[in-house]
Amino acid sequence: MKILIIGSGGREHALVYRLAAGGHEILCAPGNPGIEQLARCMPVKIDELDQIVELAQFERPDLVVVGPEAPLVAGLADRLRAAGVPTFGPGAAGAQLEGSKAFSKDFFARHRIPTAPFAVVTTVAEADEAIERIGGGTGRVVVKADGLAAGKGVVVAEDAAEAQAAAREMLEARRFGEAGARVIVEKRIVGREVSVLALTDGTRLEVLPSAEDHKTIFDGDTGPNTGGMGTVSPSWASDELLGRITSEILQPTVTGLMKDGIGYRGVLYAGVMVDAAATPWLLEYNCRFGDPETQPIMARMRGDFGAVLLGAAKGEMPVGSLAWDARVAVCVVVAAAGYPGAVRTGDPIVGLDTAGDDAVVFHAGTARKDGTVVSAGGRVLGVTALGVSVEQARQKAYGVADRIELAGKQVRRDIGARARL
Ligand code: GLY
User: Fold this and answer.
1) Strands (DSSP E) along 72-201, which ranges?
2) Between the chain's N and C termini, which has fewer beta carbons within 10 Å?
3) Residue 282 β-bridge partners
């Protein structure tokens, strides 16, 4: 099968890696220096929707897989389908689950999907009232910009002053532009988070093994949030808990999408908080594969992933055909100096070929300059290793990450170190 992947990050490299291993011919737009080794890369950017559609019409792939959320929210999958190209990824209507938090919270409430109490506000006065009411006077709430904000639009406030300042930054200073014209104030649920990704063709579900992300930049879950500094899959979540997440969150979502007349062919990536009573609460949906959750998931996946994605794209997804390596996978992100703030780019990366058979180095933010691979983003690499235990997978991943030379590199040392319960 000929498959076109849209995107250029670690998630897309991991998807290309698994699909290429399945014997498929892979094209990627725009790709990166790691992807180039497995696929024919095309210099078309993810926001150039006309050119992507033109590329798909020219190359006539059997399947297009759209990686990032922005082109999905902008309707790329609708346009590709209208051009007759089978596409894995929701249309603009379904992508609102990630593109508008006000839409998604309203969807969860209407379809009785367990989620934290919330209010949608458009003025500072409404925000202050909601912070007081929902925080029960403590101000310990979560403040979220409605639209896409490159992973930076969520503030977990410790007190009312922090929550009010976050709401003002979004509503008045328009830190995230129109994405912050509406703000969600939500009750803070304390617990442990798990990422659960499921493939769907609009009616069927294929729930993938769960993953645990490590969101903050520093060890011990401290410092500012990032896109994710490392992941472990499978996660600490028990089969019983995953069964509840499937029956209480994922299945009602598919049913709700059908009731609302939204055809959804793609990934439902649920960010779930599990509280002290072991109750799962849906924090948010993403309408695409998680990054870096996808890296360990792809490292463990066996079976014909291409056939499952094509089936989902055509509304006839086979369920239960994927198999999984019994080992655990750990992904350790190598980030650039300055991340998650202003990052330094253009630094040469040395040691990319030292992974051996034990690990895969997925490129996330790299570019080629004068024949050398250099850093080109905040998260630069995702070193992913399999092990018979989390400890062994960690040792392998850190062994490779430590051999990679990148000036000022940042690597969290505690990926996978938390108890697995
Ligand atoms: N790992 C977080 C995300 O993909 O949004």
Assistant:
1) 87-88, 118-121, 141-145, 154-156, 183-187, 192-200
2) C
3) 272
Residue finishing a domain among 72, 91, 110: 91
CATH number at residue 165: 3.30.1490
Does ligand 1 lie within 6 Å of residue 286's CB atom?
A: yes
- Give 31-46 pLDDT, tens digit per residue: 999 999 999 999 999 9
State the total domains in the chain: 2
Inside any domain, residue 72: yes
Cα(226) to centroid(ligand 1), Å:
9
The domain that holds 61 is classified in CATH as: 3.40.50.20
| CB of residue 291 inside a 6 A radius of ligand 1 | yes
Question: Which residue type occupies 54?
Answer: E
For residues 253 and 198, is the Cβ–Cβ distance under 8 A?
A: no
What are the residue ranges in the chain where pLDDT is below 50? Answer: none
**pLDDT (0 to 100) of residue 257:** 98
The pLDDT of residue 8 is 98
Give exposure, 204-219, as e/b (b: 16+ Cβ within 10 Å). Answer: bbbbbbbbbbbbbbee
Q: In angstroms, what is the span from residue 136 Cα to ligand 1's centroid?
A: 30
- Beta carbons of 18 and 4 less than 8 angstroms apart: no
Query: Which of 210, 285, 287, 293 has most ligand 1 atoms within 8 Å of its beta carbon, as the pocket-test mutant?
Result: 293
